[in-house]
Design a protein that fits this description.
mainly alpha, 4 helices
């Protein structure tokens, strides 16, 4: 036997764990992808209006945030690249095949950039909170 005590953390099994958690994450991702696809299919008329740009920007920002939270907050750059690749594929390959123009690629990219910047600020805030908590523990 060992003379030192080992710290054993409780292992909790919530109802959203294991396979159910993976299914919920996957379904949420499908919703984000469908919203992004619907944003590209949205046609408010002959001319691309400001509503179309805002709708695409929000859709691809939400897709970027979902990918970042799925693969990990530290990999937000990878999440932005994945969303950018998806947006580029849709805007440069699928839409011209349907006869639409390239006018909305800038708004999709802007949504991805806004989401990436927001994720970076969120990561900095979490890191700052951890530093403050560790300083309080060492002071006590």
């Amino acid at each position: 036997m060992s003379d030192t005590a080992e710290e054993m953390l409780p292992k909790r099994k919530y109802w959203v764990s294991g396979n159910l958690k993976m299914v919920a994450t996957g379904l949420t991702g499908l919703i984000a992808i469908f919203v992004a696809l619907k944003a590209t299919a949205y046609n408010s008329g002959g001319v691309i209006g400001i509503e179309d740009h805002i709708f695409r920007m929000v859709a691809f920002a939400s897709l970027t945030i979902w990918v970042a939270l799925t693969i990990g907050l530290r990999r937000s750059g990878t999440a932005a690249v994945i969303a950018l690749g998806f947006a580029t594929f849709i805007e440069l390959i699928l839409e011209p095949a349907r006869g639409q123009g390239y006018g909305t690629l800038a708004s999709t990219n802007l949504g991805i950039v806004f989401a990436y910047c927001g994720l970076q600020l969120y990561g900095y805030r979490l890191a700052d909170g951890r530093k403050t908590a560790s300083k309080a523990e060492t002071a006590a």
